């Protein structure tokens, strides 16, 4: 049932879309059409009368009614398994249909032996019958009519529990409709001088909600996919509706062109209903046409203000120093990362593409040896941009190694366990659209998960398991990976592809080549690599000078914490510091994380043991004179002076 108040006039100079052209082309050849895709949206219907073109944007079921009516169909009936038969636009069509199907109608209502409807029946708006009786009546009406009939089957995705497992009644239902598709009796329409068939329309979420045997190899059935509005359709919408926005008369012609283009770019993936809703929202909130981006952000995310606009140049002025304080020894990686950030903040991301505004703000693929600062860089970026590390949403991709793990990420479909909970990724973005999304060790995810990123990276949106569109246009997406550090030899054995003694340039080329081979040859997903583009950032090994800096930083942090917590001064002799340096420099393959492990095992653990065993209290000065290791046990010799 449709509220006709939603009808909006549109620009009459419209060209039909592909599915409309197919419908017109095959209406005299096919007897049944399955309409799938964007079926719940409004659609533009145009009709020419006496040289004038009238167009309006209307729901799909009313579109089909108008289409059939203007092609000479005298009986047009709707059916769904809840309301039964009906036609809210003209109840005479229901009476005509019941008259044509009276034989089966009487059979389905034995308490009414006469074929003529009673006065009560003449006034009723629906006739509720089971799906089994409905198909008997549809087939009877098509077989006995002397004029073409249009049957529109709404909610056809909900008629059966499973199209692969039909019970007897459901099998009878589709079998009768299958036989009805074979009735290709043509009728001549005098007003158009054309021959047409009786037509059935299945309005379905997707074609495979209907048993495959019904439409596969059936020459009289055609599936029509209805897409969401493309750029041309959105352009036509804004051309016809722009005057409905606040402040239209104040905008110069040059501004109009720019604002229209911005509208088209930012509404990628919107339905006609959403486009119209956006117009209503602007009027309701009195949002000026010059702030159309603000209005679209409000519609998508529920917020007007963009945190990206608050970043400004001041935050990024000292960004290099801020990052290098936390991520040591990665000059090239930091520079490349900052280029991406500055591009995102300035709004220049993706300008080389025809539609760029709906894409994520930026994409980074951080690769290189473990423990070199990839995850730390993502957290630093979140703090730098938005003032808090909590804006970095981390997803460990080793948890998504199974093919069905996409349900955990994006939400389970209706009827499956966890549907009510939604997806971990989609929930995070809905809760905070301004985020740094960190996908750690992306190569560990199942390949089907990687396919989901194609739409996110290209279109900046994803439909979750609950059918809600989630927008990623305000996010920065970061992948991390250890690809290219090891490769397999001809025998399948794992060998080192890069080593710490390699120059950075050589190591970088080897890792880049390995990453490309993985996506193009091993995974067979070159399109994912294309979406990432040249945003692959290669991290260097932790070199000796950097390792010493990291070691000193960690030791200083420990000393500072003891000073703050226990008023205890801790210092190291040259010998003790040299011992730790040798151990740290001998573990460079594990990067900063390896140095942290050395500090924990060789310094924190023996220090804790010493403080406990010798009952060293606060308010003291402790000098670590010697650290030694014997048979795996680390010993510490210290001097303690109580203050």
From TrEMBL:
SMART domains: AAA (SM00382), ClpB_D2-small (SM01086). The keyword ATP-binding applies. GO terms for cellular component: cytoplasm. Pfam families: AAA_2, ClpB_D2-small. Residues 108-120 have a biased composition (Polar residues). Residues 542-635 form the Clp ATPase C-terminal domain. One of its GO terms (molecular function) is ATP binding. Residues 105-127 are annotated as: Disordered. Coiled coil: none annotated. SUPFAM superfamilies: P-loop containing nucleoside triphosphate hydrolases. GO terms for biological process: cellular response to heat. PANTHER family: ATP-DEPENDENT CLP PROTEASE (PTHR11638), HEAT SHOCK PROTEIN 104 (PTHR11638:SF18). This is ClpA/ClpB-like protein. InterPro entries: AAA+_ATPase, ATPase_AAA_core, Clp_ATPase_C, ClpA/B, ClpA_ClpB, P-loop_NTPase. The keyword Chaperone applies. Residues 360-501 form the AAA+ ATPase domain. Keywords: ATP-binding, Chaperone, Nucleotide-binding. It comes from the Bacteria.
